[in-house]
Design a protein that fits this description.
By secondary structure, the protein is mainly α. The chain is about 65% helix and about 5% strand. Helix 5 packs across helix 6 and helix 5 crosses helix 7.
Length: about 250
């Protein structure tokens, strides 16, 4: 074998080795992403998040629109530092089977499917666990990729967090107005008080604006928010009040 042929063979072998290493690295990417997501959820079981992904995207959106004065309002409060009416109002409004399901409410999903199949206004069936996963780790939108990641993170937080922790994080990262995240920031912005001093009516109003927090105002409720808040208060009483939340493991 001539020197030139030997050199070509060596180059071919080296190129083949680089391709194999490249494929192996590519195959490891999903594994590394999986491990990273698990570590995220494990850490946030114990550490209170300084921000959420949705907050970051909202801030970037404002800057992209040239609104340099826009700022996020966010202050963490532990669940036991909120009025007892807050968590039960959120559950009554968003996910009444929260203590019972494991992240996905199959009954609500089937009910929504039948409702939407009849050609009526689209209805969702997201649980508090799913909304927490989306608000904490993902972005707004309806793509299949985001829904798939939402399902994955929902499974993780249901496995690795207690129900109390899920509800605590949700109450702190849910949007209650444009740039207003969490019940503490909402209580201060709307009523200049601490979340621990919110009344049952005020807690219900906050829960009532969740479907469209940039459209509705908890401090100046229109007819829709007033009706929905009254319904939420009735539902909270029928569920058994704060005791209903305490049974969630």
């Amino acid at each position: 074998m001539g020197a030139e042929q030997a050199e070509r063979k060596a180059q071919a072998v080296a190129g083949s080795g680089r391709r194999r290493r490249g494929w192996r690295l590519l195959l490891w990417v999903p594994v590394m992403l999986l491990v990273a997501s698990v570590l995220q959820v494990v850490v946030l079981r114990f550490v209170d998040p300084p921000f959420s992904t949705v907050m970051v995207f909202r801030q970037m959106e404002a800057w992209g629109q040239g609104d340099w004065k826009f700022g996020i309002h966010y202050q963490w409060r532990d669940l036991d530092q909120m009025a007892a009416s807050v968590p039960i109002s959120l559950v009554a409004a968003e996910d009444q089977r929260f203590p019972e399901h494991h992240g996905f409410d199959l009954k609500a999903i089937e009910k929504a499917r039948k409702h939407n199949a009849d050609g009526k206004r689209l209805r969702g069936a997201s649980t508090i666990s799913q909304q927490t996963a989306k608000n904490m780790f993902l972005w707004q939108g309806r793509s299949w990729l985001r829904k798939g990641l939402e399902a994955w993170y929902t499974v993780l937080i249901e496995l690795l967090w207690s129900k109390q922790r899920i509800l605590e994080v949700y109450a702190n990262v849910a949007e209650f107005g444009d740039g207003i995240y969490g019940v503490q920031a909402a209580a201060q912005q709307y009523w200049h008080k601490d979340a621990a001093r919110l009344s049952a009516a005020e807690s219900a109003r906050l829960a009532a604006v969740l479907p469209a927090p940039r459209r509705y105002n908890a401090a100046q409720p229109g007819p829709y928010v007033q009706r929905r808040a009254a319904w939420i208060q009735r539902q909270a009483r029928q569920l058994g009040g704060a005791g209903y939340i305490e049974q969630a493991d």
